[in-house]
Amino acid sequence: MKSVLANMRQAVERKKFVLKQREERKVLERIDNVAEKNSLGRIHREATTLLGERRTYLQNPECVELVRAYREKKQDLKKLQLQHVDLERRSKLLSEKAETLRNSFVQFTKETGQLAEKLAKKPVRVKLDQGGL
């Protein structure tokens, strides 16, 4: 990894890998941080230690059960989130449909009033009971 980073550093310094000046500075700083300060070795040691701890934990049946339960709950949560999205979509569709029906009903009421006035040849007042709307 160090050799790859060293080659990348040389490419940036020789302008074979063209970056904006600010980006170039940041890239070089990060390469120095990783390659020169023995970060890779430290990261490797930490990862090896963590993998060993993981293996130890997974030999314990209680931990294995906790991992299984966690994965199951995570899967359940994902299903619930999908259901939530679906329900929100359906709720929006129903709301839009109800609004369309409400508008149609209002228009129908107006037209009914106009027809009643035409037939009765006098003003007619149509009252709309919106108790259920």
Describe this protein's structure.
This protein is mainly α. 81% of the residues lie in helices and 0% in strands. Helix 1 runs antiparallel to helix 2.
Give the helices and strands, then pairings.
Blueprint: H1 2-13, H2 21-36, H3 39-58, H4 61-120
Helix pairs in contact: 1-2
Distance between the termini: 69 Å
Q: What form results from the Cα inertia axes?
A: elongated
Largest sheet: none
Q: Tell me the number of strands.
A: 0
Tally of helical runs: 4
Rg, rounded, reads 35 Å
Order of helices and strands: HHHH
Share of residues in helices: over 70%
Q: Which structural class best describes the helix and strand composition? A: mainly alpha
Identify low-pLDDT runs.
none
Q: Strand content of the residues, in percent? A: under 5%
